[in-house]
Amino acid sequence: MKWFIGFLCILTVFTLFDELSLSEEVVTEKSHLYKLPNNIDPVKEQKILPVEEEWLAYLQETEVKTPEPEQKSTQAKKPPYPTLTVGDKNYQLLGILKKDNQPFILLKAPDSKLIELKEGATLSEGVVLQTIAASAIILSQGGELIKFKLFERSDHGE
User: Fold this and answer.
1) Is residue 28 part of a domain?
2) Looking at the domain assignment, is residue 134 inside a domain?
3) What percent of the residues of the chain are helix, what percent strand, and what percent coil, each to the nearest 5?
4) C-alpha–C-alpha distance, residues 128 and 137, integer Å
5) Residue 27 within a domain
6) So what's the pLDDT on residue 12?
7) Are 128 and 140 contacting, i.e. CB atoms less than 8 angstroms apart?
8) Per residue in 114-126, pLDDT tens?
9) Backbone torsion region of residue 126, taken as left when φ is above 0, otherwise alpha when ψ lies between -120 and 50, otherwise beta
10) Kindly report the CA angle at 150 between 148 and 154, in degrees rounded to 5?
11) For position 104, which CATH number holds?
């Protein structure tokens, strides 16, 4: 079997080399030479192909058909994360943590400053953190209680 495969390989190589003709002459007639332009004028207007004309017509139709985008509402969109709204400021709750068996919350202020609040601490003028529970955070503003529920189902802005 090895002899047969070796014979086929040699036969293939001879057949390939036999097809190559090394005796062909190079044609140097002037009618076969390509002429290159001396310069190319990029400003010169070129003929538009029929395909380009169709494409340009299609683009003009789509420009006419596309309606103008609707005016976006002036209301600010809700951020994708839950926020604790106190007055006109939205605070992002980053976490509820414990330090020396004392729970505290970590908030991110609108100006990107981190705020650490323990129970009884003041968030802003007149706003005090009352309690930190497993299901909610309760703040008091004057005589009014603000309850921020944790683990509340959200539609994620949809």
Assistant:
1) no
2) yes
3) 25, 30, 45
4) 11
5) no
6) 92
7) yes
8) 888 888 888 878 8
9) left
10) 100
11) 2.30.30
- Determine the residue type at 145: L
pTM of the model: 0.44
Domains in the chain, number: 1
Kindly state the DSSP code that residue 82 receives in the 8-state scheme: -
Residue 108 maps to a domain: yes
Residue of 113, 117, 114 lying closest to 105 (CA atoms): 117
pLDDT tens by residue, 81-102: 667 777 777 888 888 888 888 8
Instruction: Evaluate whether 84 touches 90 at the Cβ level (below 8 Å).
Output: yes
CA dihedral 27, 28, 29, 30 (to 10 degrees): 140
Full 3-state SS string of 20-48: CCCCCCCCCCHHHCCCCCCCCCCCCCCCC
For residue 131, give the H/E element and its range: strand 127-132
